[in-house]
Amino acid sequence: MRKLNKILAVLLSATMLFGCSNSGEKPNEKDNGIAKVGFGMVANKNDEKGQVNTTMCTLALDADGKIVSVYFDVAQHTFGANDEVRTKREKKEDYNMKGASGLGKEWYEQVQDMEAFFVGKTVDEIKGYEYVEANGHTDVAAEGSDLAAVCTMSMTDFLAALVEANTNAEAVTGAEKVVVGETNTVKDNEVDTTVTALALDKDGKIVWANVDVQQTKPDTTEFRSKLEKKEDYNMKGASPIGKEWYEQAAGLEEYLVGKTLADVKAIELGEANGHTDVPVEGSDLAAVCTISLTDVMSALEEALGR
C-alpha cells in the first residue's frame, strides 16, 4: 500500500506540472494566442536607379513576446519607368529573381519561408542572428545559419520594419487573425503606398486597425509616413474638422473596430472639397475623418477579403 501511495503521488505531481485538467484546455493554449499586434513601415530611395522601396511588416505576438504571425511586403517603384503598382509579393514569378537566388526561389517564396521561420521566436532573437555583407548586399544572413537556409536576401529593411512593428505593437483582445491590404497609386510622378493592417476576431470583426500612407516623390529626402509626420504633415488648417492627418486616421481606426467586410463595403462616401470618396457629411465617420478614402477603402477590402 505504501508503494502504491508513492506511485499515486508521483502521478499527481506530473499532472500538476504539465497543467492537465478535465477542462480540456491544452498546455500553453493561452500563451499561443495573439496578445499584441503592430505595424512597421520603412522607405528608402536609390537615387542611382531612381527607385523607391517601401517595406512593410505586420506583426502578431503572444503574451511572451513570441511571434505568432508576421507578414512582409515591399512596394518598389522606379520613377519615370512605368506605372507598375503590384508589390514584390504580388508579382510572384514576374519579379524574376529565382535565377539569381542561391536557393533557387523567388522573392515571395523566400519571404514566406522567412515568415514561417520567425514564428515562435522573439524579435530580439531575430536581431541576434549573425548578418554579413555578401554579393553586394548588407545584412545578409551568415552562410550556414538556419536563417540563410530559407532566405539569402538583404535583411536591412526587413529588420528595420520588424523592429518598428514591434515598437508600435499594441495590446489586443479577441484577435484570431491578422490581415493586411496594400494599395499603390502613381500620379504626377508621386507614389502613394496605402496600407491597412487589421486584427480580426473569430467572427471576422475588426478588433484593431492601423492605417498609414507612405508618400514619395523623386525629390523626397526624408521618408516618414503620414502617421509619423504628425503635425509636420500640416493639413489641420485645411481640415473642415480642424484635425491633422494622423488624428483623422486615429478616428477612422476607432470607427472601424467592430466592423466586418460587409460593414466596410456599406460605408457611404461622396464628393466634397474637390475630393472624391470622402465620408458623407453628417455621418458618424465624417465627424472624425474627412479625408479622401479611395485608396484606404481599396486596401481595407483587400485585407478583409483575405
Question: What series of H and E elements makes up the topology?
Answer: HEEEHHHEEHEEEEHHHEEH
Mean pLDDT over all positions: 88
Please give the radius of gyration in angstroms: 23 Å
The major sheet is characterized as: 4 strands, antiparallel
- The separation of the N and C termini measures 61 Å
As laid out across the biggest beta sheet, the strand order is 3-2-1-6
Into how many domains do the coordinates divide? Answer: 1
- What is the helix tally? 9
**Uncertain residue ranges:** 1-31
Report the sheet-strand fraction.
25-35%
Share of residues in helices: 25-40%
Brief summary of the model shown:
By secondary structure, this protein is α+β, with helices and mostly antiparallel strands. The chain is 27% helix and 28% strand. The N and C termini lie far apart (61 Å).
Description:
By secondary structure, the chain is an alpha+beta fold. It has one domain (36-304). Helix content is 27%, strand content 28%. It contains nine helices and eleven strands. It has helices spanning 2-18, 88-91, 107-118, 123-127, 156-168, 226-229, 245-256, 261-265, 294-304, and strands at residues 36-46, 51-61, 67-78, 131-134, 137-141, 170-171, 177-187, 190-200, 206-216, 269-272, 275-279. The protein has a four-stranded antiparallel beta sheet with strand order 3-2-1-6. A three-stranded antiparallel beta sheet has the order 7-8-9. A hairpin with a 2-residue loop joins β10 (269-272) and β11. The longest helix has 17 residues, at 2-18. The termini are far apart.
Which terms would index this structure?
disordered N terminus, alpha+beta, single chain, globular, about 300 residues, three-stranded antiparallel β-sheet, four-stranded antiparallel β-sheet, about 30% strand
